[in-house]
Amino acid sequence: RGVMVRYVYDFTQGGRDMAGLLGGKGANLAEMTRLGLPVPPGFVLTTEACRAFLTTGGEPAGLAREVSDHLAALETTAGRRLGQPDDPLLVSVRSGARFSMPGMMETILDIGLNDDSVLGLAKVSGSERFAWDSYRRLLQMFGSTVMGVDRALFEEESARLKDVRGVPDDVHLGAGDLARLVEIYKDLIHDETGDWFPQCPAEQLRRAVLAVFTSWNGDRARLYRRREHIPDGLGTAVTVQRMVFGNLGPDSGSGVAFTRDPATGRPGPYGDYLPEAQGEDVVAGVRNTVPLTELERLDPGSCARLREHLRTLERHFRDLCDIEFTIERGTLWILQTRIGKRTAEAAFAIAAQLADEGLITPEESLARVSGEELARLMFPRFDASMTGAALAHGVAASPGAAAGAAVFDSAEAVRRAAAGERVVLVRQETTPDDLPGMIAAQAVVTSRGGKTSHAAVVARGMGKVCVCGAEELSVDVRARRFTAPDGTVVGEGTALSVDGSAGAVYPGSVPLVDSAVMRFLETGDTDGEAAGVVEAVAGALARADTVRRLQVRANADTPQDAARARRFGAQGIGLCRTEHMFLGERRKLVEDMILARSDTERDRALAALLPLQRRDFTGILEAMDGLPVTIRLLDPPLHEFLPDRTDLAVRIAAAEAHGDLPDPHDAELLAAVDRMHEENPMLGLRGVRLGLLVPGLVAMQVRAIGEAVVERTRAGGTPRAEIMVPLVGDVRELRIVREEAERVLAEVSAAAGVPVTCPVGTMIELPRAALTAGRIAEEAEFFSFGTNDLTQTTWGFSRDDVEAEFFSAYLDRGVFPVSPFETLDLDGVGRLVRIAVAEGRATRPDLTIGVCGEHGGDPASVRFFHTAGLDYVSCSPFRVPVARLEAGRAAL
Ligand code: ADP
Ligand code: MG
Ligand code: MG
């Protein structure tokens, strides 16, 4: 390249807005340096250097030169050279990508130690133990990360030595022991690799840097990126930083701290400290940490400075921050900061507090919480003080929390559940054969598969708690047990707790607590133990309601659902399906309608259904009085209401086998089933096509709606029914149905002497409907996007058939990052939506447009519907608060 590319930045040359180039860690170290916080000096090799290295396989030209220049500067400030034998400068080599990938890549500490400088370090520090401890740490990290020796082998050697000495942990090993360990490790590295650990500090540095670059493409890192939707092409930056030592004796140590409690959001610093330790010991959990109150006692000066720095950082970043810190002989150093991860509860609490404190605006406060977090707070959950450490993490596939005895096959799940036991079904992955077990279980855990794996899809459909793809678990179905990464073996019958909202599996039976947020949403009650969080949620929803432009309606088919949706803030019903109303005892009437041999017979069956339908609609219109209720005419193919063909055939065959005559009704039904069989029912006789082909059906449904409106009007109510015609592909279909509907409504109105006006509109769920929306709007008073069918028909796949099987392959192979049934496919389906909105409104400027597919409750999709100019989204009652919040955020 003609232009000179710069690959290395000193901490004093960067800042927080350079995360793309310096990684989050490097950029924030630079930012803290600028703020004057005590950060050990250092420099950052850019992600660009990493990308160049990974694409060409070699170090980019000029990189080595830039590194040695920056190292020289670092050496000058420190007054000593890297690995200088009598007083060595030591550095850490740290990974850090643009997006935090905790623990996924490598970091190597204590670079610069060798057989000579370890002696110098011992002398200048006055601690032989410290020097040998640092050297063996370097050998361990360098040996595994750079030279590829299995980490466990080092652990085995150190465990063996501790055994011989009869001591429980590393702190009890003396200088002599550690020096011995150094020799053992050096031999181990040589035995395993055929190479000796490099004694040259510059070579150590160079190889460590390249190893960190390479770790970007490690299995763990790739897997994590796929799960978190982080692009593979970003690369990691590498930070080279002067070491500070927490392992320099009792007045030293390391810790992590948060500006507020990340679990509850409680204000005031929160953290853990580990005396006599380097940072990696804190995370590794080798010894138990102590709370900050204990640091206060051990080292009040450092603790006070720590608190002050936390305050500075929170004011500066205007958000919850977490930090890594190290105290070296009473001097405090900050080694990392970032915006802290937090629970849903803490997210709401902190957003509200920061706004109250004037640090952020109310709008920013709303932007800081998400619909997903709200959804999580609506489920009963585990008592956070009782969970302990997770056995494993996986994909949070279906929210909620549940506990039960572990079982490893469907039959056992069914057997135990029948005996009244609560069970958790654990499998590598589930298949349709596991269905009975999934129904019987409280929760499902799998070690394979993502959000659209069979387990995830089925569990969500059943509202069952599910964690899938917990790859750390090694599940042995035959032996009826699994092993967790910490070595815990969980056998059949052992209690297990599953948090489907957080994607975590815990040992034992963790107690559940009811959701205070749900109680608030149901009753408006903000009192109680979680009052802070509930008030924060109430405040966020109130703010969202003031700023949002999108209305939120609910999909509800019963008065109960309608009433609940209304309590949750629904502004009407966007989809009232009528098919459920044809089930149960009414099936017989539907059969009669289908089998009718004459108009009279059919009219009789329809007439019997009419009062039942009228009652359904009256109840719903009452629950939603004053608000719009969009009633969809019957949509599914009629044969769905007939019995299963095999059942019928078996019944007939059984009768014949007994020498009896088969029930003539059965024979008739079988003939009807055969007559109405469709190869592709999804694309068959359904939706508006039924209205055109089954005489009297539309008239009956419309009459029931009209009469319900009359009844409600007479009762003093304000019914606002809307009639929605499904699966329209051409304006003429809609015109025929609409004319019929208007004729019936006029009749009802005239007979009752009560005005009955119901807008008639259509679903847009076929590409042809979207593409001819301008024509369709001539007949439609409103549009409602049926995005489930529109997704199926646009992609040409049937959801029921593809989701479990090939979607996981499609996700794995990157065809789409997320299932198009979960988040609207903006490029394809979204484009059709935009066309239909523009052309529909061109014909009829006051056209009301909404969406009633499941996407109506999906945060990312809600955002799109806002920008696409829709008037409302409609979703299941439980998603209504989520959609309100997201509609508010979309409008910010
Ligand atoms: P990760 O991204 O996995 O947290 P880090 O690069 O933050 O990796 O480093 C791992 C541990 O080593 C952290 O606890 C960090 O504080 C510690 N560490 C890194 N660099 C230094 C240093 N220069 N001096 C002392 N400790 C360090
Ligand atoms: Mg870190
Ligand atoms: Mg549909």
From TrEMBL:
Residues 421-503 form the PEP-utilising enzyme mobile domain. SUPFAM superfamilies: Glutathione synthetase ATP-binding domain-like, Phosphoenolpyruvate/pyruvate domain, Phosphohistidine domain. Residues 540-888 form the PEP-utilising enzyme C-terminal domain. Its EC number is 2.7.9.1. PROSITE patterns: PEP_ENZYMES_PHOS_SITE. Keywords: ATP-binding, Kinase, Magnesium, Metal-binding, Nucleotide-binding, Pyruvate, Transferase. InterPro entries: ATP_grasp_subdomain_1 (IPR013815), PEP-util_enz_mobile_dom (IPR008279), PEP_util_AS (IPR018274), PEP_util_C (IPR000121), Phosphohistidine_dom_sf (IPR036637), PPDK_AMP/ATP-bd (IPR002192), Pyruvate_phosphate_dikinase (IPR010121), Pyrv/PenolPyrv_kinase-like_dom (IPR015813). It is an enzyme of class 2 (transferase). It holds the Pfam family PPDK_N. It comes from the Bacteria. Residues 64-288, 302-349 form the Pyruvate phosphate dikinase AMP/ATP-binding domain. Its cofactor is Mg(2+). NCBIfam families: PRK05878.1 (NF004531), pyru_phos_dikin (TIGR01828). Belongs to the PEP-utilizing enzyme family. This is Pyruvate, phosphate dikinase. It comes from Streptomyces roseiscleroticus. The lineage of its organism: Bacteria, Bacillati, Actinomycetota, Actinomycetes, Kitasatosporales.
